[in-house]
């Protein structure tokens, strides 16, 4: 007996327990003694088996507790699932382990695997009630099979059987992952040989599945919590953005209201909106010209102009991720457009804007559209004021053209009220404009007002005068300003500059008559759509004008020379007559005047300084000769 205890204490192998019996037989032990020894051996082997089972069970429990501890440490769902199947394969010492999770819409689906070789098996989706896994999920208890394919206890499906066969799997055991009474998935272990799974394997896998279900639920809850926190952060940012948008809208509303109340202008609106939205703001008229800009030095690009035209075509806000425009509307009437350039700073990250990706949100779009509405109001008000002032200016110009010039003091006071200095020289323009006279008259009034001038409609023609401006520049202003309203080429006659009404009451009338003659000559010559001055026409204008004025022509061509003779007592005009009579021969000219050739040369040099270097060119020469002849006739 002691020998068997020693063998047990020494953890001897099972074969070593035959030793005491053999020693007793060799010593001649009686049958009764041998029977007692065999009985003791049997008890010792039972004790040894019990100890072995306990050691194995302790090892499994240790591994199980270690697995539970590892699962408790994991928080990522994918990592948890992978750890479960890896532990299941190790604990049961199987070829394969895998896990399926329930999909309420499409049945069970394979989530993670360990030891699987084929893609078909790894991606298999198992409908409810099909195969061993379907039976486990329905019955909520473990099931196993030593050989899956021929086992008739399960509902087989061709695609699932094909996947199992392709993987070479024969024996399978599956246990449910339970949260209370809810099955959230099935944990499997499998071998590629026919292998029965006993109750111990089932119990071990059930224990692992119980820990696994808790770990899966914990990981799911953590992921849901993270998702909720992320969603809360997004919601918080959106709320913060909306609060900022509300604050910007309130700021913009206060600024725009203050501009209207305090009598501000479009420039103030543009500047305020640019500050609120952190972007360049430009107001354009219907022709694309800039009315006001927060960055005057920066020109409007072709793309920006195209966006503005599109907003006018659509009669609503249009644009892309960085350039937007909204129409400036007064009812159905379009007055222009308001352009919003790229944002200067991205409010999300604070980085400088690159001009892309800065979408105009609803709040900022409403600010832009409200600013456009205020701009329309200010433009209408400015137009009304301009029209009222234009009517007053038009009445004064009509009086001047009619020859009923008020007394100087009255004229000076009326000029002061209109903020116009009537002592300055003025260019006079007469335009022949087809189309709606009322509309053209309004356009002329606007053009005159924007250049501190006066406009009136007289005898079916538009008359404008502009201070401190030459005839050609004034004519070009009128052509450009009336082009859109006329809808056709604008023909213009221009004169001046002539002395202002306070300096010479009749000068404006004379300039008007000259401009009319130029216009009549232009129409006769077929020069529609052009600006024509007396310098352009020369003596032809005198011939074609309906009511020519020889003295004015002489003055325009020889005035400086005549004035010099009058002031200095010189004989430049006489020298010119002799010079042309001698066919421009200096010697014969000197002989006719009874002076030295050098004297003639000096006089002609003086004429050149007075008339300019080109007076001897063929066309100018003809005009000078005609002026000399007319001067002789009218003197």
- The shape, in one word, is rod-shaped
Distance between the termini: 169 Å
Any low-confidence stretches, pLDDT <50, length ≥5?
345-357, 544-548
List the strand order in the largest sheet.
3-2-1-6-5-4
Give structural notes:
A six-stranded antiparallel beta sheet has the order 3-2-1-6-5-4, with helices on both faces. The chain has a five-stranded antiparallel beta sheet with strand order 8-7-11-10-9, sandwiched between helices. A five-stranded mixed beta sheet has the order 13-14-12-15-16. The model is unreliable at 345-357 and 544-548 (pLDDT under 50). With 635 residues, the protein is of the alpha+beta class. The radius of gyration is 54 Å and the shape is rod-shaped. The relative contact order is 0.04. It contains 22 helices and 16 strands. Residues 222-249 form a coiled coil. Keywords: Coiled coil.
Brief characterization of the structure:
The protein is α+β, with helices and mostly antiparallel strands and 635 residues long. 57% of the residues lie in helices and 16% in strands.
Question: Strands, helices and their partners?
Answer:
Blueprint: H1 2-9, H2 19-26, H3 31-73, H4 77-92, E1 96-103, E2 107-114, H5 119-122, E3 125-126, H6 131-139, E4 143-145, H7 158-167, E5 171-179, E6 182-191, H8 199-261, H9 266-277, E7 279-284, E8 290-293, H10 302-314, E9 318-319, E10 324-330, E11 333-343, H11 362-402, H12 408-417, E12 426-432, H13 437-450, E13 454-458, E14 461-467, H14 471-486, E15 491-498, H15 507-524, E16 531-533, H16 534-537, H17 539-544, H18 550-568, H19 572-581, H20 586-593, H21 597-611, H22 618-634
Parallel strand pairs: 15-16
Antiparallel strand pairs: 1-2, 1-6, 2-3, 4-5, 5-6, 7-8, 7-11, 9-10, 10-11, 12-14, 12-15, 13-14
Helix pairs in contact: 2-3, 3-4, 3-8, 4-8, 8-9, 8-11, 9-11, 11-13, 13-14, 18-22, 19-20, 20-21
């Amino acid at each position: 007996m002691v020998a068997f205890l020693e063998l047990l204490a020494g953890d001897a192998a099972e074969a070593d327990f035959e030793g005491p019996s053999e020693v007793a037989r060799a010593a001649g032990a009686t049958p009764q003694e041998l029977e007692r020894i065999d009985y003791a051996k049997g008890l010792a082997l039972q004790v040894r088996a019990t100890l072995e089972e306990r050691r194995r069970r302790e090892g499994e429990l240790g591994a199980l507790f270690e697995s539970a501890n590892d699962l408790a440490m994991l928080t990522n769902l994918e990592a948890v699932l992978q750890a479960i199947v890896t532990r299941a394969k190790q604990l049961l010492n199987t070829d394969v382990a895998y896990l399926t999770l329930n999909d309420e819409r499409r049945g069970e689906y394979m989530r993670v695997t360990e030891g699987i070789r084929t893609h078909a098996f790894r991606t298999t989706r198992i409908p409810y009630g099909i195969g061993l896994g379907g039976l486990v999920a329905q019955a909520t208890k473990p099931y196993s099979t030593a050989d899956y394919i021929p086992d008739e206890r399960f509902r087989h499906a061709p695609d699932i059987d094909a996947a199992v066969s392709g993987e070479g799997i024969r024996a399978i055991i599956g246990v449910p992952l339970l949260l209370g009474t809810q099955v959230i998935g099935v944990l499997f272990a499998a071998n590629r040989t026919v292998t029965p799974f006993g109750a111990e394997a089932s119990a071990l896998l059930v224990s692992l599945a119980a820990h696994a279900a808790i770990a899966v639920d914990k990981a799911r809850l953590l992921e849901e919590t993270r998702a909720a926190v992320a969603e809360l952060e997004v919601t918080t940012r959106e709320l913060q953005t909306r609060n900022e948008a509300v604050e910007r809208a309130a700021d913009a509303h206060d600024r725009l209201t203050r501009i209207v109340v305090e009598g501000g202008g479009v420039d103030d609106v543009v500047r305020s909106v640019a500050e609120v939205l952190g972007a360049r703001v430009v107001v354009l008229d219907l022709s694309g010209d800039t009315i006001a800009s927060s960055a005057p030095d920066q020109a409007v690009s072709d793309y920006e102009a195209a966006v503005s035209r599109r907003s006018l075509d659509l009669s609503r806000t249009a644009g892309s991720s960085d350039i937007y425009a909204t129409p400036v509307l007064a009812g159905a009437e379009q007055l222009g457009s308001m352009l919003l350039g790229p944002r200067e700073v991205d409010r999300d990250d604070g980085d400088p804007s690159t001009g892309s990706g800065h979408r105009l949100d609803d709040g900022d779009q409403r600010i832009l559209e409200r600013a456009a509405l205020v701009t329309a109001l200010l433009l209408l008000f400015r137009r009304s004021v301009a029209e009222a002032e234009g009517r007053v200016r038009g009445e004064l110009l009509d009086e001047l053209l009619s020859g009923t010039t008020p007394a100087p003091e009255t004229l000076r006071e009326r000029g002061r009220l209109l903020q116009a200095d009537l002592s300055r020289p003025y260019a006079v323009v007469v335009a022949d404009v087809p189309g709606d006279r009322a509309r053209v008259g309004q356009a002329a009034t606007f053009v005159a007002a924007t250049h501190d001038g006066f406009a009136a409609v007289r005898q079916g023609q538009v008359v404008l005068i502009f201070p401190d401006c030459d005839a050609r520049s004034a004519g070009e202003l009128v052509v450009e300003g009336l082009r859109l309203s006329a809808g056709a080429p604008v023909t213009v006659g221009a004169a001046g500059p002539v002395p202002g009404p306070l300096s010479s009451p009749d000068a404006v009338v004379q300039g008007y008559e000259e401009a009319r003659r130029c216009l009549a000559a232009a129409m006769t010559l077929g020069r529609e759509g052009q600006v024509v001055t007396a310098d352009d026409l020369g003596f032809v204008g005198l011939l074609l004008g309906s009511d020519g004025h020889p003295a004015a022509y002489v003055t325009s061509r020889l005035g400086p020379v005549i004035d010099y003779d009058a002031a200095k007592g010189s004989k430049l005009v006489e020298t010119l007559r002799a010079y042309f009579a001698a066919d421009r021969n200096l010697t014969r000219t000197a002989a006719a005047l009874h002076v030295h050739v050098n004297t003639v040369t000096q006089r002609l040099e003086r004429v050149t300084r007075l008339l300019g270097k080109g007076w001897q060119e063929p066309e100018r020469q003809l005009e000078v000769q005609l002026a000399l002849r007319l001067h002789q006739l009218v003197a």
